[in-house]
Amino acid sequence: MASTMNIKPWFANLQGSGRTRVDLFSHPKRGIKVQGRIYCRICLEPLNKTWICPACDTAKKNFPHSERPVTPSEASAASSLNDESVRKLWEVLKELAEEVRLMKVRLPESGCDFKDIKSTLDKQAELSFENSERLKKLENLLETQNKQIELLSSENCTLKKKVSALEVRVNTSEQRLLRNTIEIRGIPSKQEEVPAAVVVSVCAGLGLKISSDDLDHVERLGPRRDGAPGAVVARFVRQSLRDEVVRQRRIKRDFSTRHLGYPDSDSRVYVGDAMTATNRHLYWLARQKRSADKVKYVWFSGGRVKCRRGDGLPVVVINSPEDLDVFP
Prior knowledge:
Blueprint: H1 2-15, E1 22-24, E2 32-34, E3 37-39, E4 46-47, H2 54-61, H3 72-78, H4 83-109, H5 114-177, E5 181-185, H6 195-205, E6 215-220, E7 232-236, H7 239-251, E8 270-273, H8 277-291, E9 297-301, E10 304-308, E11 316-318
Antiparallel strand pairs: 1-2, 2-3, 3-4, 5-7, 5-8, 6-7, 9-10, 10-11
């Protein structure tokens, strides 16, 4: 009732009458009810639905808990620590204090000076900083060199492709120069023989009558590594005559030295196109593929090595060793 008497004059002045009814609620969080309206019990501001205004509620929530007094229950809980734990903690602290004391005694005896230690640490920090800077420079240099290596690798690949294309063109040009030339292998060599007479004799054995005037150049190569006689290379004046000699040899499959008047020899005589060193190597590689049953047909015509995997399949022209990769 005393609280009611203290608040009543304020509300009486507010309403202009001394008959204002003030009801206080017993709960501390509730407000003050005056003539059916509710006012905040802290700042006496009118409220709508809540029992305390938002500003006072926020201030109350933000009140620091560290300043709150300790309750008797909390004090009794804090005093219930285990005596054994306290004793162990005290022993650990005593050991730590003893270690610190011994350290203070040993440092002067060892001759260590904190200034020297600090100076050494500063030098180490400087060296670490210098090494870090050097490492950054090396990383930048390595990155630059990696970019240069990638650029050079790309240029190298491009140059390899260009070189390969040029090699094919050079080989084609060299083979074109041999379009009037044939190679005759399997004829025994004689002392003081005339190579042109050998070619005329071979053509006569194939049923063709030619003279030395139809030949531009004839020579016999040196013996092979296995001791076999070297081939006779003949360049004709006309390509048509050269093609006719090759065609007649394909017709006469059993052509041998006995058709040329060699009674003591009966070895087969081969007449074929003269090939460049590159085409000869490609032809050998292609025959290796045939031996491995990768291709069925290998031949040389038109100045190029050609392969075919089987009957009815397309012909593959071999211009470089990479072209044989289609037959794995």
